[in-house]
Specification:
By secondary structure, the chain is mostly beta strands. The protein has a domain at 16-71: OB fold (Dihydrolipoamide Acetyltransferase, E2P) (Beta Barrel), CATH 2.40.50. The protein has no helices and six strands. It has strands spanning 16-20, 23-24, 30-34, 37-41, 49-57, 61-69. The protein has a six-stranded mixed beta sheet with strand order 1-5-6-4-3-2, with no helix packed on it. A hairpin with a 5-residue loop joins strand 2 (23-24) and strand 3. It is globular. It starts with 15 loop residues before the first strand and ends in a 21-residue tail after the last strand.
Length: 90
């Protein structure tokens, strides 16, 4: 009850998501948000959309590492699927 640590984070360690870097923090890390939850992403630049893996989740913030470029949808919080590319359909 009181000993339980409840996290209301919309993410878990190991999740892979696309995020848009909204700002750069004081220490130079990119800052993104998922449903209002702040994620720090080292080596990310403001305005980038990147695919990240969540590495650590605290009560109010999380940390992630860059896996690569994100999909064209900057607010995607689920794994992307490139099979729906219009170039493949004819």
């Amino acid at each position: 009850m009181y000993n339980e640590r409840r996290s209301f984070a919309p993410i878990n360690v190991g999740d892979e998501v696309d995020v848009k870097i909204e700002a750069v923090g004081a220490k130079g890390d990119g800052v993104a948000k998922i449903k209002g939850f702040v994620i720090f992403v080292p080596n990310a630049k403001e305005g980038e959309t990147v695919r990240v893996r969540i590495t650590k989740v605290l009560r109010k913030v999380g940390f992630a590492e860059i896996l690569g470029e994100g999909s064209s949808s900057p607010e995607s919080s689920e794994e992307s699927n490139n099979e729906d590319s219009p170039e493949d359909k004819e």
